[in-house]
Task: inverse folding
């Protein structure tokens, strides 16, 4: 504190209060005594279950699709790479409701992909659980790709050279050397993506609607319950808050920082 | 990079050269980690890289490589590191591990099999890296500064061990190093690279006896002087003249071993036919000797005993006389040697 002008300290404290007071308000208003009873209702249990399934599914899809994309961005010089990276970033800054609208127009029953998909297979994505997963993947994937790309750039690539001189094919190098060496990065990316998927609201409600048991995830349930059962909404909110704090604590841990195995020492 | 190098099977060829001379580039090109623009590379009977379009990737070359800091995969056990080359060739996990254990046994390292690379010493890591590189019986073994990551004490022990391993290896070994001692102990032949070209090649004894450039002379620890010879004398480029026991004529190199020079307080009388005044520039202890660098015509590095340094009071700035017998000076033609070699070499 020594040497900090009091005016700056004062404004900084206000900023901190601005961030913390709402959370404190939430915790103060939470009916702690009835927390488990509130969380055990049909609506909240359904929302919890659906959120868990869809967020994990979205994380898995983001990881399976995201690793090759991150690898391309980190390892291959191709024309338009900067543009591709910018496009990957777009869902990070795009208003989720715009993302949901975009998904609806592309994958909806009259969309450029949705229409042929329905006529060929009878599958309709909007307003289904798959729609929730797709919306969550759409917003979560950039977190995974960017984190993994950073890990790929940060790792000591000479381990890959060593593997190649031992006769490993490119795929074997990726599977047995590269991915294990960037495991902390993969985990961090997956955690960030999962947290983002768990909290997804705008794209989901736009693309998948708000049907309990089918598309009503925790954030949607909170939004709905605020009208009817305020205490249940608060209980669900506290659960989401706790999960986010846990994710932050895990990401802060030493083993997720650069400097773990496989990264080049300065 | 423009170098024509041949490494015969069963022999160790050392590649030495200053930083930036192309040693690493050469090794990476042979390994297949970097393609070449001109020329060709052959390993055994197989052309692996040719500017006309042939390029066999590192994974399909019959090579083993030991990297400077060994690059053992940190997430695998020692056993799995050694087994990696076999796994890459489609050997089943269990069989590959069994072969890795056999190899570790031969190397006397089997008790480390279950450890991680973070739990072993540098010397052990080097030997495991060698076991890993050799398990597929490659035609060529590439060693990139294999001692650079070790401390001095470990070096001597691992050098002897590596020397034994290399004598059992039937393929060609390329050893990149900047330590003449390593080349001397391990290599049959030495190739000196400078600015991407072969400055000199031959056995260690040949190269040590007749260095063809300033760098090689410094490497071998001899004084290299350039001048023109006529009637048993060499007029040096940097000034001064030497009487030599040779009738050679024309542009020559003359080498003088630092131990062949004596220092005197006064102008000496006697059989040493070359004597000139000089002034001490630096004094440095090397083991049980003292290496003194002199300014004079010519400048010279001289190895003296601590006793004579003390009795002559050779501190920087001190003056004395240097003498060298004509028979101690080796003179040979400077046919196509780099321009840089014209003066005393200061390692």
Result:
């Amino acid at each position: 504190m020594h040497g900090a002008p009091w005016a700056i300290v004062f404004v900084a404290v206000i900023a901190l209060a601005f961030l913390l007071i709402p959370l404190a308000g939430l915790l103060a208003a939470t009916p702690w005594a009835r927390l488990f009873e509130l969380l055990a209702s049909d609506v909240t249990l359904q929302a919890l279950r659906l959120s868990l399934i869809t967020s994990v599914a979205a994380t898995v899809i983001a990881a399976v699709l995201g690793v090759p994309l991150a690898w391309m961005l980190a390892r291959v010089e191709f024309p338009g790479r900067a543009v591709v990276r910018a496009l990957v970033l777009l869902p990070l800054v795009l208003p989720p409701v715009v993302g949901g609208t975009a998904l609806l127009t592309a994958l909806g029953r009259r969309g450029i992909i949705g229409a042929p998909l329905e006529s060929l297979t009878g599958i309709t994505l909007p307003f289904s659980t798959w729609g929730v997963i797709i919306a969550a993947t759409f917003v979560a994937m950039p977190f995974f790709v960017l984190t993994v790309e950073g890990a790929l750039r940060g790792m000591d690539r000479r381990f890959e050279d060593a593997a190649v001189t031992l006769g490993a094919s490119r795929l074997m190098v990726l599977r047995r050397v590269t991915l294990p060496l960037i495991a902390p990065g993969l985990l961090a990316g997956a955690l960030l993506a999962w947290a983002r998927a768990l909290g997804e609201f705008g794209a989901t409600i736009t693309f998948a609607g708000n049907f309990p048991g089918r598309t009503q995830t925790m954030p949607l349930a909170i939004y709905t319950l605020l009208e009817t059962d305020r205490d249940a909404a608060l209980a669900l909110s506290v659960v989401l808050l706790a999960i986010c704090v846990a994710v932050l604590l895990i990401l802060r841990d030493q083993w997720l920082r650069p400097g773990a195995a496989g990264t080049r020492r300065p | 990079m423009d170098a024509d190098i041949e490494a015969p099977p069963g022999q160790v060829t050392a590649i030495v050269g200053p930083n930036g001379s192309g040693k690493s580039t050469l090794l990476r090109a042979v390994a297949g980690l970097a393609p070449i623009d001109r020329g060709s590379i052959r390993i055994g009977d197989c052309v692996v890289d040719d500017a006309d379009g042939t390029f066999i990737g590192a994974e399909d070359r019959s090579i083993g490589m030991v990297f400077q800091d060994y690059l053992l995969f940190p997430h695998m056990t020692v056993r799995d590191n050694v087994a990696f080359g076999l796994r890459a060739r489609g050997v089943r996990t269990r069989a590959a591990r069994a072969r890795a254990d056999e190899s570790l046994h031969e190397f006397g390292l089997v008790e480390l099999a279950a450890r991680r690379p973070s739990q072993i010493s540098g010397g052990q890591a080097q030997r495991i890296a060698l076991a890993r590189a050799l398990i597929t019986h490659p035609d060529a073994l590439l060693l990139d500064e294999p001692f650079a990551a070790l401390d001095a004490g470990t070096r001597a022990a691992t050098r002897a061990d590596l020397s034994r391993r290399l004598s059992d290896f039937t393929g060609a070994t390329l050893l990149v190093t900047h330590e003449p001692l390593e080349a001397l102990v391990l290599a049959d032949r030495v190739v000196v690279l400078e600015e991407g070209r072969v400055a000199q090649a031959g056995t260690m004894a040949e190269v040590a006896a007749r260095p063809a450039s300033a760098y090689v002379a410094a490497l071998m620890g001899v004084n290299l002087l350039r001048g023109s010879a006529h009637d048993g004398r060499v007029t040096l480029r940097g000034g001064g003249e030497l009487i030599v026991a040779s009738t050679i004529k024309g542009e020559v190199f003359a080498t003088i071993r630092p131990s062949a020079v004596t220092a005197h307080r006064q102008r000496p009388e006697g059989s040493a036919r070359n004597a000139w005044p000089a002034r001490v520039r630096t004094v440095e202890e090397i083991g049980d000797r003292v290496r003194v660098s002199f300014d004079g015509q010519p400048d010279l590095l001289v190895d003296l005993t601590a006793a004579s340094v003390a009795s002559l009071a050779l501190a920087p700035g001190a003056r004395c006389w240097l003498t060298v017998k004509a028979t101690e000076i080796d003179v040979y033609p400077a046919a196509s040697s780099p321009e840089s070699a014209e003066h005393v070499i200061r390692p």
Summary: Residues 12-207 of chain B form a domain with the Rossmann fold fold (CATH 3.40.50.300). DSSP finds nine helices and 18 strands in chain B.
